[in-house]
Amino acid sequence: MSEQGKNTVKRSRIADAATRGGKKAGRSNGGRSSGLGRIIIAVYGVLALSATVRAVYQIMQDFSAAPLAYLLSALAGLVYIVATLAMASKKPGSWRLSWYAVLFELIGVLVVGTLSFVLPSLFAHPAVWSHFGSGYGYVPLGLPLIGLWWLARHRMNGGQAQPAA
Asked: Could you tell me the CA-to-CA distances from 9 to 4, 20, 27 in Å, in that order?
C-alpha cells in the first residue's frame, strides 16, 4: 500500500473514532470476544493446541499403550478447537455451537474424571480429562463452568446479543 493509502486508512480510523464520540465500533459478537471473553477464548485456544498436539504425539508414539486415554485426549482437543472457533465467531448459530461444545466438555470432564478414579485400569496413561484435568491444573474442570456462565450472560436471541440480567 502506498504511503498516501496508509495515511488515508489511519485518518479514516481516527475520523471514525471521532464521529462515534469515543465509543467503540460494533465489532463485537455480543461481548463474547471482548474483555473476559477474550481471555476465555485464549485459554480455550491454548487447551485446543496443547491437547491436540499431546494426543497426536501419544497416538503416533505408542497408541497401543493406552488407546482409550489417547483417543479421549484427541476428543478433548477437538472439543476445545470447536469451542474456541465457535466462541470467537460472529456467525449465526455460533453461540449455540459454543454452548453445546462447552456443555459436552463439562460432561466429558465429569464422566472421564469419575471413571479415572473408579476404573483406573482404563487410564494406564493420563488423558486431558482424567482425574478432572489434574495434569492441566484442573483448568479442564473449571473452564467449562466459567465458559457456560459467560455464554449464559451473552445469550443470542433473535440474532442479537442480549446480555442476561
From this structure: 9, 17, 17
